[in-house]
Amino acid sequence: MKKVFFALLVIIGLSSSAVAKYVTPLSGPGVDVDRVFIHSSGAISIYITGETLNLDQCKSTFRVFIPHDLPGKDAMLSTALFAYASGKKIGIHGSGCSTTSFWGGTVDVPIVNNLWVF
C-alpha cells in the first residue's frame, strides 16, 4: 500500500507546475481535513484547519480547491478522505488561487496540484 501511495505522489508531482507553491510546509505539521464538498462539475472543495504558508497570497486558506479536470484528482480525493477518516493531517502544494461560483465567486482559495498525508 505504501508503494502505491508513493507512486501516486510521484505521478502527481511530475504533473505539477513550475510556478506552484507550498500551501503547507513539506515537512509538516500539515492541516486537518474538516469536510469535503464534491461539486456537480466534479471539482472538489476541501475545508481545512491549521497553519498554512499561503505563498500564492490567496484571500483565504480555510478551503482549498481541486479542479474537475486535474490529473490525479481522484487519487487526491481518496487521500483526503483517508486522512479525514483516520485523523491524519494532509500537506498541500498549490498552483495559484481560484474563486468558485458555487460559493459566491468572491473569495479566492488555493488550487491544489499535490496532496499528501502525514
Key descriptive features of the protein:
single chain, 2 helices, globular, 3-stranded antiparallel sheet, 118 residues, 6 strands, alpha+beta, OB fold (Dihydrolipoamide Acetyltransferase, E2P)
- Biggest sheet descriptor: 3 strands, antiparallel
Output the number of helix runs: 2
The stretches of 5 or more residues where confidence is low (pLDDT under 50) are: 5-18
Total strands:
6
State the end-to-end CA separation: 15 Å
Question: Your description of this structure?
Answer:
- The relative contact order is 0.26.
- Residues 5-18 have low confidence and may be disordered.
- The protein is α+β, with helices and mostly antiparallel strands and 118 residues long.
- The strands form two sheets. It has a three-stranded antiparallel beta sheet. The protein has a three-stranded antiparallel beta sheet with strand order 2-3-4, covered by helices on one side.
- It has two helices and six strands.
